[in-house]
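Milestone M4 deliverable, item 7.
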Amino acid sequence: KMEAAVLAFLLCVCSCGERAHGYRAAVMQWTPAAGNTPAETAAANVADYEAYVAEAATAGADVVIFPEGSNGFLLWLHSLYTLDWATARDELVSMGEVIPEVANGAPAVVPCNSTSSSQLKALSCYARTYAVTLVSGMVDIVPCTKGQQYQGLACRDDNRLLFNTAVVFGPDGAILTKYHKRHLSGEVDYFDHTWELHPASFDTAFGVKLGIIICQDISFQDTSSQYDGLVDDVIFVTQFSNFPDVYFVGQLAQAWSWQHPGNFLVANSAAGYWAMGGGVFLGGEAADFYFNASAQSARLMVLANVPLSSSLVVSGSRDAPPMHPVGQIPQEAHDEDCLLFGLVNGRCTMLPAIGASSKTVFASYGPILCSFQYSGFQIFSIFVAGGSSLGLPCSRAC
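Output delivered:
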C-alpha cells in the first residue's frame, strides 16, 4: 500500500507541470479473452486490466480508456442467439453489476472501500492505486418492478433492465459517471435502451471536462452532437465493425473531430481488420492512430499528449481533411466481405447488384455534403445509417 501511495504521488508530481498544456491519454486497443463461463470471462478480463493501467500510469497517463465490451460481454453475444431470451439475459446478468446512479461524481461512491469483491471494486482500486481516471465497458443491471419506469423505459418482465455501459472512475477511486449506449446494434435483442437523451459528462482532476459516446451512437446526430458546447473533449468507446474502403472507424473518427469542437479519444477492439482502429484525433487530424490490417488480435495502448481544446484553432471555412488511409487490407479480407454481400469478383463496395433500379443518395452534416447515383444495387443498412447522419461513409464514392 505504501509503494502504491508513493507511485501515485510521484505520478502526480511528474504530470502537474504539464497540465497547463493539456493531458496525456492512454487509449486501449483491446481484445477481450474468453473464459469458460460468462462470469469467469468478465472477472479474468478485468483482472488483466491492472498491468496495462500500471504501465499507462508509469508513462504519465492521466486517463486510461478501455473500449466497449472490454470485460468480454460482447464475446458472448454469438452464443446467446441459440438461447431463449430469459436464459440469454441471465448470462449477461452474470457478467454485470448494479452500477450506482452517479452524475459528475455526486453522490460520492468509492467501490474500492467495499469489503466484497466485484468488478466495480477492482476498477475503483486500479484508478486509486495508480492515480488515473479510468474508463471501462460493463453491463449495468438496473433492478426494477413491473410498471416502474427508468429513463422513460418500462421495466422488463424479468424485473431488470440491462444496459451496454461505460463507467468512469476518478483518481480517488470514486465513480464519476456512467453512460448507457442509446443506439444498439448486434446486441439489440438482449440489451435495453431509452429514446431519451442522457449525456454523461464529468469533470476531471486534470482540468478537462469529458463526455462519452458508445459505438453506433456516433452514427446518429442526436448522440454524436449531444456534447457540443458542453464539454472540452469526447471519449468514444467502441467495438467497431469496419467495411474496408467504405465505412472505417479511422475515417469516421477523423471526420467527427474535424466537424465537432474538442479532441476525440477512440478506444476500440483490436480483434482483426474488421474490428480495429483507434487513437486520438485533434481537429480533423490523427495525433496518434493504430491500425494493423494483418493482425488477428492485440492488446496495446495508444499514448498521446492531448492539447487543451481551447488551444485548437478551428476555422469554419476549412476544407475537409483528406481521409485517413485505411491501410493495406489483405485481398482475402475484401473477398470475405464481397462474399458476404453476394459478390464473387472485384473489390467489394457494399453495393451488391440485385436489380435495375436507379437512385440518387444524398447525405449532409454541417458543411459536409455528399451525393451519388447508383443503379442495380441495394444499399446495406449500416451504410445508409452512417451516411445519413454524418455524411462520411459516402465520401469515398463521391
